Amino acid sequence: MSLRTTPLALAAALLLAQTAALAAVSAEEAARLKSDLTPLGAERAGNKDGTIPAWTGGYTTPTPGFKNGGKRPDPFAAEKPLYQVTAANAGQHADKLTEGVKAMLKKYPESFRLNVYKTHRTAAAPQWVYDNTARNALKANLQDGVPVGAYGGIPFPIPKTGAEAMWNHNLRWRGEAWHVAVKGIQGTADGKHVVTAVASGDFQMPYYFKDGNPETFDGQHWSIRLINSGPALRAGEGIVGREHLQGDKTQVWAYITGQRRVRKVPNACCDTPTPASAGISMFDQTDVFNGRTDRFDWKVVGKKEMLIPYNGNRMLAMPEAQVLDKHHLAADALRWELHRVWVIEASVAAGKRHVAPKRRYYLDEDTWIAVLADHWDANGQLWQMGFSNPVVMPDLPATTSPQMFGFYDLLSGAWYFDSSLSDAAEQYKIMPRYPATTFTPEALTGEAVR
């Protein structure tokens, strides 16, 4: 007797197929995290040319004499560039350059260049993060675009989709709690530098609480509090945010001195201008990309060897005046290296809108940091180049980007750099866990007042 396909049976089959598509990787695949893949999911081997070395555990030896919160040293300060990429020779390196980098070389041929150094694969994390990442590989999946079953490590170390890769960036290892002296700078098209914010920044990732329980984790994965001390026009302002895996549960509050009230930010996502940048940067440009993924459809273009900013501690050791060029960060302040990156393309989803309907992100395979990005506007023009500056923190241990990010507007010539730390007395201070009350509107009311 044959079975007749009923609507109920068909629905069940579709549900089963969908569940299988969202399932975590097999035990055989997960075992690769202890063989040919690093514990966070990168290719352990170097490339065939020897220009990218094998990963051998990362850089975990703190510099003698370094004190937490102080100026972070450059472990590769003695190295010299292997070569430079300029507007004149960009064609020879075109396959290693993003569209945004090519555009910047063309727009500023006299000043924009890449000083390319020896590649060091410094990425590292504590063993418990590696252990959690291995667990996530077997248990985590996406349900309605939201990670389920992930905690305390990279959620999808062997990603199958672009959305999984972007969640790896959002939930990358950067510590449990830290303090940064935040300073935002707007570069104008005519070469001026305007300070948009000077603030005390406290950050926390409940997702990475070492003693946390993945079964009781409530989805609130990232918290931020910024209290402005300058410029004078913005002194006393503040912002508190608690980001949730489910974007509609993310909450952000701002204190505006002229109103002397804390107000909830109604649409703290996506292409809404963020108060922390004085409205210059969008919420989802924080750290090159941040927040909700449901505004876009995500596609894995592939993995490529590309030149990206990396191990950029040299910037932390330079005076800010030497870091800022007229139209971009100074070439000599940046260290570029050849690394393998995941290339992820974003197209605005059906029924959604965004001022940058097409985007391309470049995720470092070792850390999952979105190091570079290209944004196209609604007219199809290449509009912006996003960037970050990952630095080595062997005391954490991690190679991470301490809020040092920004973008270049390729059409107007304006640009933005968040968290200029060169002149800061403290550069990414690792903190004990903050009380949960730190990231509340009530705490903001008590501190962000003038």
TrEMBL record:
Keywords: Signal. Residues 40-74 are annotated as: Disordered. InterPro entries: DUF1329. Residues 1-23 form the signal peptide. This is DUF1329 domain-containing protein. It comes from Ideonella livida.
